[in-house]
Structure to design on (246 residues):
C-alpha cells in the first residue's frame, strides 16, 4: 500500500525537496509513498489571486484567508477522504514519535503549510484539522516542518529501512534517549571506545547501554526522565513508590 502525502502550500516546488534523496527518495521511486502538492493560490477568488489579508485587531504580518484555505482543504478531502489533515504551525501540539507511528500506519496525510502570521483560527473550528508543531522555535513557513514530519513517517514504512527502523532501542521508543554509539578506529585522537563494548559480553553490554541511556536522558532531557521515572515508579495498584525506595 502506498502512503499518500498530499501537501497544501504556496510553494509546491519545495516538494519532495530533500525527500527526493537517499532512503525517502528511493522509497518514492519504488512507490512506497507518493507526494502530491496542491497550490493554495489556485483557490483564490479575486483577480489578484490573494491568499492573505491584514490581521484583525492590527499588528504585524498577514494572515491566510480562511475561505481560500478551506476551499483548498475541501479539494484535498475529496481527493483523499481518509487521510488525517494536519496543519504545521508553532501553535500546534508537539509532534511525538508515538504520533509519527500512528500516522505511518495509516493511509497517508494531508498537510497544510502555513506562511506569514499563520491561519485564521476559524479554520480549525470549521474543518477537522490537527495543528502540529515540530518544536519551540519559529520557522519561516510550514513547508520545512512538513518535510520533517514526512521524513519521520517515511522511514517507518514497510521496506524503507528494513530491520533498522523496527529497533525497539531507538531514541523515544522506550521513553528514553538511545545509548551512545562508537565505531573503529578503537583509538582516535587519544580517546578509546569504552572497554565494555569490546568485551564480547552481551549481558554486560546491555547493562552498560541501559545505564548510559538513563544517565544521558536524565542529564539532557529532564522532561523525558521525569515522565519515564514517574511511570516506572508507579506500582501495579497505581500507588507511588516512596522516594527512599527509588
Ligand atoms: N511553522 C513555523 N514554525 C513551525 C514549527 N515550529 N512547527 C511547525 N510549523 C511551523
Amino acid at each position: 500500500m502506498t502512503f499518500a502525502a498530499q501537501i497544501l502550500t504556496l510553494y509546491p516546488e519545495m516538494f519532495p525537496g530533500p525527500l527526493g534523496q537517499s532512503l525517502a527518495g528511493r522509497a518514492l521511486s519504488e512507490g512506497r509513498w507518493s507526494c502530491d502538492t496542491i497550490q493554495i493560490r489556485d483557490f483564490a477568488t479575486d483577480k489578484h489571486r490573494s491568499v492573505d489579508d491584514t490581521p484583525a485587531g492590527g499588528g504585524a504580518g498577514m494572515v491566510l484567508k480562511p475561505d481560500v484555505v478551506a476551499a483548498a482543504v475541501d479539494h484535498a478531502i475529496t481527493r483523499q477522504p481518509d487521510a488525517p489533515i494536519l496543519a504545521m504551525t508553532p501553535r500546534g501540539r508537539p509532534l511525538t514519535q508515538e504520533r509519527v507511528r500512528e500516522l505511518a500506519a495509516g493511509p497517508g496525510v494531508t498537510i497544510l503549510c502555513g506562511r506569514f502570521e499563520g491561519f485564521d483560527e476559524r479554520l480549525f473550528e470549521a474543518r477537522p484539522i490537527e495543528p502540529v508543531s515540530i518544536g519551540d522555535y519559529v520557522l519561516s513557513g510550514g513547508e520545512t516542518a512538513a518535510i520533517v514530519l514526512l521524513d519521520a513517517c517515511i522511514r517507518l514504512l514497510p521496506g524503507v529501512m528494513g530491520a533498522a527502523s523496527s529497533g525497539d532501542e531507538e531514541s523515544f521508543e522506550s521513553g528514553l534517549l538511545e545509548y551512545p554509539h562508537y565505531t573503529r578506529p578503537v583509538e582516535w585522537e587519544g580517546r578509546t571506545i569504552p572497554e565494555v563494548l569490546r568485551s564480547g559480553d552481551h549481558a554486560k553490554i546491555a547493562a552498560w547501554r541501559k545505564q548510559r541511556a538513563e544517565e544521558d536522558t536524565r542529564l539532557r532531557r529532564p522532561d523525558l526522565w521525569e515522565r519515564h521515572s514517574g511511570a516506572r515508579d508507579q506500582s501495579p495498584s497505581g500507588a507511588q513508590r516512596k522516594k527512599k525506595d527509588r
Notes: The pocket of adenine is lined by residues 88-90, 114, 133-135, 137-139, 142, 145 (CB under 6 Å).
